[in-house]
Amino acid sequence: MTYDLSVINHRLSETPGDYVQESEKYFNSRVRKAADEIFNNIDQSPIVLLSGPSGSGKTTTAKKLALELKSLGINAYNVSLDNYFVTVDPVTAPRTPAGEIDYESPSCLDMTLLNSHFQRLAAGEAIDIPHFNFSQQARDSDRATPMKLGKSDIAVFEGIHALNECITHEHPAAYKIYVSTLTDITDGGEVLVDRASLRLVRRIVRDDYFRGADPQFTLEMWGNIRRGELLNILPYKDSANMTIDAALPYEISVMKQFTGGVFDKIQPDAGHYEVLQQVLDAFGRFETTDPALVPADSILREFIGGSSFEY
């Protein structure tokens, strides 16, 4: 799927507020459809698996899904698969071809515990969700979140590996969602900004604003992130019951206003800078849209701030 730059700019110059709302309405309609299908599947499984690559807006999607399910009388509890990371052991940790620890590998997850929790939740039993301390790169043995599902409860497990066959094979009845930016922006029939680059910009801005991550470090990680996506995420996307396009056609017209100071921190000799440069060159060809037009519950707010959700 593609969005044409001339159409985007025409709509933004004529009726920016309407165009923003139309874009949001389409995304929300997909989330609502997923909620309806989950409601109809609850007798088969109380587990929802939500996957997508980095920068897709999985967390916001899960939160919006929970609100839609609540309107149907279903309580949804969102669980990040990050909490199922195993304590990092430099000796046994998976490695990239360059010899670095591969944090994008599904081997970093405690699959045994995770699959046990799926089975116990489906059986109506209580579990204790672990807590992973990223600063210590270890599971926090003193922290855990108890959970037990009632007849009108759903657990949404969200993470990049949620659709990996190591997980879905053990619980095939779970409802599966894949969310990602699935649209390129074209100009004159040629791709101006591809869907992966859109996620890269989202991640760099979010990580700088809200996670204290150096933008250059984020960019230089991009190669291994993309490698992990191609190996461990994209092969399983077609197993999803519902696919949601998280790309908003207007978003670059807003996002470009948040990138100046962030991208200035990145040196031109940084790895994958050419990818970023292509996006930067494209920014000037987009109309500028007032960020105030972006709804507080928009998926875009996960990356630029001002969200009505807590992260």
TrEMBL record:
<feature type="domain" description="AAA+ ATPase">
    <location>
        <begin position="44"/>
        <end position="206"/>
    </location>
</feature>
<dbReference type="Pfam" id="PF00485">
    <property type="entry name" value="PRK"/>
</dbReference>
<keyword id="KW-0418">Kinase</keyword>
<protein>
    <submittedName>
        <fullName>Uridine kinase</fullName>
    </submittedName>
</protein>
<keyword id="KW-0808">Transferase</keyword>
<dbReference type="GO" id="GO:0005524">
    <property type="term" value="F:ATP binding"/>
</dbReference>
<dbReference type="InterPro" id="IPR027417">
    <property type="entry name" value="P-loop_NTPase"/>
</dbReference>
<dbReference type="InterPro" id="IPR006083">
    <property type="entry name" value="PRK/URK"/>
</dbReference>
<dbReference type="InterPro" id="IPR003593">
    <property type="entry name" value="AAA+_ATPase"/>
</dbReference>
<dbReference type="GO" id="GO:0016301">
    <property type="term" value="F:kinase activity"/>
</dbReference>
